[in-house]
Structures are given as C-alpha cells and as structure tokens.
Amino acid sequence: MKASDSEWMSISDMMSGLMMIFMFIAISFMIQVQNDKDKVEESNKKLKVLMQEAEKAKKRIKNIAITYNKDKTELNEDLHQEFSKNLNKWEAEITQDNIIVFHSPTVLFDNGEALLKKDFQAILDDFFPRYIKILASDKYQNEIDEIRIEGHTSNSWSQKISSDDIYLNNMTLSQSRANNVLSYCYTIDNITINQNKKWLEKHFRANGMAFSKLKFMNDTNTPDDNKSRRVEFKVQMKTEEKIYKILEAS
To answer: How much is the pTM?
Structure first.
C-alpha cells in the first residue's frame, strides 16, 4: 500500500467520524427541538384549558351578579315600600345596600350602657316582625345567607383611659349592644317571629364593630359621634358568597 493511500484512508476515516459526530449532534438537536415543541404544545393546551375555565368562571360570576343585582334592587324596593312611612319617626334610613341604620343614640341606649331603652324596644317591636316577614318570605328566604346586627360606637370614652382601653371598652360595649338587640328581637312574642325561629337560628348573627367604621362630619376628617353611635341591620345574600367562592377557586 502506498503512503498516499494510507493518508487518504486516514482522512476518510476522520471525515466519517466527524460526519457521525455531526449526525449525532443533529439528531440530539432535533430531539431537543421536538421535546421543546411538545412542551410548548402541552403548555398551550394547559393555557387553553385555563382560559376556557376563566371564561366559564366569568360567565358564572356575570350570571350570579345579574341575579344579585336583581334581588338587591327588589329587596330595596320592598323594604322602602314597607318602612318608608316609619323612617323619620324612627330616625332610621335604608341604604342602597339594604342596610337599615338606626341613628339616634339617645333613643337606642344610655351613654356607655348596653341595655335597650324602652323607646328602642318599642321600635323593634314594630320593625322586626315586619322585617322578617319580608326576608323569610318565599321570595327571599332561600336567597339569604345572613342577617347581621352590627353595633357601632364612637372612638371616645367617658373616662380618661388609654387608647387601648378605649378600643377594648368600645368593642365590648358594641358587642354587648348587638347581642342584646339580637336577643330582644329573637324573643319578641309575634307569630312571624315564632314561625321562623329555626330559620333565624341558622341566619341571625350579632357583631360588635366598636369604631372600625366611623361616620364623619360632612367633607371633613372629624368623627361625628352621634352618627357613629348606631345599630345596623344587614342582609347578605347567598349570591355574594357564591361570587367569593368562584373567585377563590379561580
């Protein structure tokens, strides 16, 4: 064998080896590209599913919101129809959110006390059975999640004490007042109340709020003590809870 032939074979072998290396590199690259493509396709599939679920959730929330607004509007109309003639006498109001607010602190309780005054008891004797007659009717009964009494106070106290004690004393006072209002309403001897006690036990609540939601003088940062001292009756519809659950799941 000539030397030139030997050199040619060495070059040929080297070229074959390089071609094999390039082929393996190309195959590896193609496999990587295919894997990346599969991952992208899988990600796109997951993204598509998530977008479909988000769209479904959006539609559910929209439908629930439509129902909620309808129920909220109709309840507001029914409450106004029932109580509009009494609101001035009771020093009360019905808000757009269907909160019934009793404002006059001198009618509700003595200063710093949790016992209901006689005038407030008389108001509740008239108000609460009519209120429950609406809420426990076939129209609303199954749509209501909670009826909540909230006691609210000012951010002051009659004695000179620490800011911590002012808060704790007002929290205790507001909770006691809310509890006493609930207890009085629940024990009113009235056919509507008696017929719906089991339902009330599932939905009737009392919360003390202290001064967490103060009312202020018009366009100022000065608390309005008289407006802050109040009792509120709130209704939470089941549609609200459904929306919260959908948002949490999403």
So the answer is: 0.74
Residues in Cβ contact with 207 at an 8 Å cutoff, skipping those fewer than 6 apart: 148, 149, 150, 151, 175, 178
Measured N-to-C along each axis, helices 118-135 and 3-83 cross at an angle, to the nearest 10 degrees, of: 120
Q: How far is CA 237 from CA 37, 139, 179, 200, 229, in A?
A: 48, 12, 22, 14, 26
DSSP conformation class of 215: -
Count CB neighbours of 206 within 10 A.
Answer: 21
Task: In whole angstroms, give the CA distance from residue 185 to residue 116.
Answer: 11
Measured distance CA(209)–CA(150) in Å, rounded? 7
**Sequence ranges of the domains in the chain:** 1-42, 70-249
- pLDDT-derived band at 38 (thresholds 50, 70, 90) equals confident
* Residues near 50 by beta carbon (within 8 Å), at least 6 away in sequence: none
The CATH superfamily label for domain 70-249 reads OmpA-like domain (3.30.1330.60)
CA dist., res. 231 & res. 206, Å (int)? 10
Digit-coded pLDDT (tens) for 124-154 = 999 999 999 999 999 999 999 999 999 999 8
